[in-house]
Amino acid sequence: MLDLSLAIAHHLLIFGLFGVLFAELVMVRQGLTAATALGVARLDLWYGVLAGLILAVGFSRAAFAAKGWDYYAHNSWFWAKIGTFAAIGLLSIPPTMAYFRWRKAGAAPADADVAQVRRFLLAEVVLFALLPAFAAAMARGYGEMTGR
What we know:
single chain; mainly alpha; 81% helix; 0% strand; elongated
């Protein structure tokens, strides 16, 4: 039952994170108002919370669920998934910092700033699309590294 519960939680959190990311992408566009910028900044807090919960639940799943840590530790698709998630996290830093600046300024951001943030958000979305492919390959036993 632990394996099932952690799997469900992990998947729901990932869907939630993608929803927040997609909402940010939709909201952050040319002509962004100060009020919408504030809303994006508040929404971005959930992005951080969900990402942290995904890591906690995901590593709990890897360590304590059915397949166990040894399965994941020796799987190249697992590490590709972790690396991609880390890259997405790094790409999320500049937008978050922009949201802090926009919130502090209390004014509508310049269209050039908005365009820059959108590029980061689009890169995150593109990388995010790789995660289910890596997870599917990993779950089916591909990517096992030998030499244990």
